[in-house]
Design a protein that fits this description.
The complex is a heterodimer of chains A (307) and B (353).
Chain A lengths: L1 H8 L2 H26 L7 H17 L4 H23 L6 H23 L28 H19 L1 H11 L1 H6 L4 H27 L11 H11 L4 H22 L7 H19 L19
Helix pairs in contact in A: 2-6, 2-9, 2-10, 2-11, 3-4, 3-5, 3-9, 3-10, 4-5, 4-9, 6-7, 6-11, 7-9, 10-11, 10-12, 11-12
Chain B lengths: L1 E4 L5 H25 L4 H13 L2 H26 L7 H16 L1 H4 L6 H30 L3 H21 L34 H18 L1 H11 L1 H6 L4 H28 L10 H11 L4 H21 L9 H21 E4 L2
Antiparallel strand pairs in B: 1-2
Helix pairs in contact in B: 1-14, 2-3, 2-13, 3-8, 3-11, 3-12, 3-13, 4-6, 4-7, 4-11, 4-12, 6-7, 6-11, 8-9, 8-13, 9-11, 12-13, 12-14, 13-14
The chains are: A mainly alpha (307), B mainly alpha (353).
């Protein structure tokens, strides 16, 4: 077992796979992070990823360029984010329930739309996805598509916005102490809505990575819990973009490792390996539980004049 | 845009809200039907007819409603204490697996005990399996403050993989020609049919009886009060002497047990064995049903019949007009969102400045 693992770890393809698996998680985790920093849980991610995956792919299938596909996925995510924001910010509904509702809605609408567009297809129609960046000549990065580069750029960008700009300060304030933010003349509802819409756009792009880069077609159940894992990764990352990247890479490392070990034929049922990523996510939550620094106003709707 | 509490919530608004939600749902769903290019009236008529239009339609709807009532109750109990159990799907499978483990192993002879003894043991094992599965997230929440939403969601995936492992391993039905399917329950352990030549089984009575029992518990018992208090304001509840952590753990055990029971009753009443597709998301639909019912156990029965009717109706509708069956999930999702909005508008009014 151990020599096997060492062989796997010495292989550049393995590390390329780690980065590839991490990419949608980076987008998704940053999206959840942005929403939660503004004080709003967004369990809509699982469904928004499905919608982004379909919308982005459909745009390319209908003749758009790949980057148009990414934009369409972001806009689709933003649209569902706006709905989530409407339910949770001005209407102050339970963020858990609204998020699950968004996931159910976005997922069912996507599946419905796919079936309306392609009533009777035996094989899913395909597109030409993003190509690897062979021109880059950096060993592991050259195996990635431009979307991975975009994801890696988003990490410092979001960190910069959150910690170095007035907008980021506003987002963090409404997530920690909305009443004080209001006192500073901020419009709490507007800042929260903006953060949710932007975060949801990232979730849409996370989904689009699956159909525009990892695969070349849309499949049912292709998101398969990745959205939920992002929600766990944000807690693991203590709501910090840098740590979110680290968490996504760590998760992807174990996921890539279990995929390789599965093929080892060591008599362990393959399901045990498939369980590992989910089990590790739970373990990670338990490990950081004691020092989890939740945004103070997370899941607390802000209604003016109510305490 | 901001909210302003209505000074007095009128009874009219509270009664009108669900109707407004239904009207809004029909309106939005119509856009989706029209998009598929199908005639609106005929599509709705076919759904209604397929779900509620005949004795057969009703029997199918009630069969489908049975597990939905139980997962709906599971969610309603937990959500009342603001314990967000999103793992009913996994607990359902755990219960189904436990039922087959007791009642189906060893070539269907079980543990060679009398069915009158084996049947209650089987049901108890299913409830225990569901309850124990939820106990872990409940303890993590109460002891360590780990958010139960994520842990219960992730456990769903682990349980489904475990089921898959069991169906290909120790619990595999050797006669199923390689199809991943568990051994069957003994014949004498299956629930009786309520109506001849239909699939409606005695599990429906169990589900409705449990709904009535829970309704009574919530309305009349101290425990029911404690659950509501913990949900409304845990600090306040602790202040007046409600054991907050124990109430939450008790709620989790009941919620998990109900979902586990849903799995066992599906096996004993409908399928006879476990497959990986025995639940088309009953656990998640349970959450919708609980919300549609306003977390009221009796309302859960009505909401489960509604959702089951739409699902069954959409199946039969799609054979008549070219609308994908996913319209059922779309309708259910929209009805959840519009119900949520309706309740908000009944209590608050929106100010645009």
């Amino acid at each position: 077992m151990l020599p096997d693992i060492l062989v796997i770890l010495g292989n550049a393809d393995f590390w390329a796979a780690v980065l590839r698996i991490a990419t949608p998680l980076v987008f998704g985790t940053l999206g959840v992070l942005l929403c939660e920093r503004a004080g709003v849980l967004n369990l809509g991610i699982e469904g928004i990823m499905v919608a982004g995956a379909l919308a982005g792919w459909l745009a390319v299938y209908l003749g758009g360029s790949l980057w148009v596909g990414v934009m369409v996925a972001a806009l689709t995510g933003a649209a569902f984010g706006l709905l989530h924001a409407f339910l949770t910010v001005p209407l102050a509904l339970s963020q858990h329930v609204a998020g699950l509702g968004i996931t159910l809605f976005a997922t069912s609408v996507s599946y419905y739309a796919y079936r309306v567009s392609f009533p009777n297809v035996a094989l899913p129609p395909t597109i030409a996805p993003f190509a690897e960046m062979a021109w880059l000549t950096i060993p592991i990065l050259a195996k990635q598509t431009p979307m991975t580069l975009l994801a890696l750029t988003c990490v410092p960008l979001l960190a910069w916005v959150l910690y170095r700009t007035p907008v980021g300060l506003a987002v963090r304030m409404v997530g920690e102490n909305p009443a004080a933010a209001e006192g500073q003349g901020l419009n709490v509802n507007a800042v929260r809505t903006g953060a949710i819409v932007a975060g949801s756009a990232l979730m849409g792009v996370a989904g689009a990575f699956l159909t525009l880069s990892a695969f070349n077609a849309f499949f049912f159940n292709m998101v398969n819990g990745r959205g939920w894992i992002c929600v766990a990764l944000v807690v693991f990352a203590s709501w910090r973009p840098g740590k979110a990247l680290l968490g996504a890479l760590l998760f992807a490392f174990f996921d890539a490792l279990q995929l390789r070990l599965q093929q080892g034929g060591d008599g362990v049922p393959y399901q045990v390996y498939l369980m590992l990523p989910y089990a590790l996510s739970i373990l990670a939550l338990v490990l950081v539980a004691r020092r989890a620094a939740y945004p103070q106003a997370l899941m607390k709707p802000y209604v003016k004049g109510e305490r | 845009m901001r909210l302003e509490a209505r000074g007095e919530v009128s009874r009219f608004m509270l009664v009108a809200a669900p109707f407004a939600a239904v009207a809004f749902t029909l309106l939005v769903s119509s856009l989706f039907v029209a998009w598929a290019g199908a005639p609106l009236g005929r599509t709705y008529a076919l759904i209604l007819d397929g779900g509620f239009g005949s004795r057969f339609a009703w029997s199918e709807t009630l069969t489908r409603a049975t597990p939905l009532i139980l997962t709906g109750l599971s969610a309603a109990v937990a959500f009342r204490a603001r314990f967000y159990n999103i793992g009913a799907e996994g607990q359902l499978y755990a219960g189904a697996l436990a039922a087959v483990a007791i009642g189906g192993l060893h070539g269907g002879t079980g543990f060679a005990a009398h069915p009158a003894l084996l049947f209650p043991v089987m049901m108890a094992a299913a409830m225990l399996a569901g309850a124990l599965l939820l106990l872990v997230p409940a303890l993590l929440r109460t002891r360590l403050g780990v958010d139960e939403v994520v842990t219960t969601l992730l456990l769903n995936f682990i349980v489904l993989l475990f089921v898959s492992m069991m169906l290909e391993g120790p619990m595999k039905d050797p006669t199923a020609m390689g199809w991943p399917q568990s051994v069957a329950l003994g014949d004498d352990l299956q629930l009786g049919k309520l109506i001849e030549r239909t699939r409606v089984h005695a599990g429906l009575l169990w589900a409705v009886a449990l709904a009535a029992l829970l309704w009574a518990i919530f309305k009349y018992s101290t425990f029911g009060f404690a659950v509501r208090a913990v949900g409304a304001n845990p600090r306040g509840a602790a202040f007046v002497g409600v054991p907050v952590q124990w109430t939450m753990i008790a709620v989790a055990l009941i919620s998990g047990a109900l979902a586990g029971l849903a799995g066992a009753i599906e096996v004993a009443g409908r399928t006879g064995y476990v497959t990986l597709d025995m639940s088309p998301g009953y656990g998640f639909s349970g959450i919708v049903i609980a919300m549609l019912a306003g977390l009221n156990p009796l309302g859960v029965v009505a909401a489960a019949v509604f959702v089951a009717g739409v699902l069954v109706g959409a199946d039969s509708m799609s054979r008549g007009v070219a609308v994908p069956t996913y319209i059922a999930e779309v309708i259910v999702a929209i009805s959840l969102l519009s119900m949520l909005m309706a309740t908000a508008f009944a209590r608050y009014r929106l100010r645009w400045h």
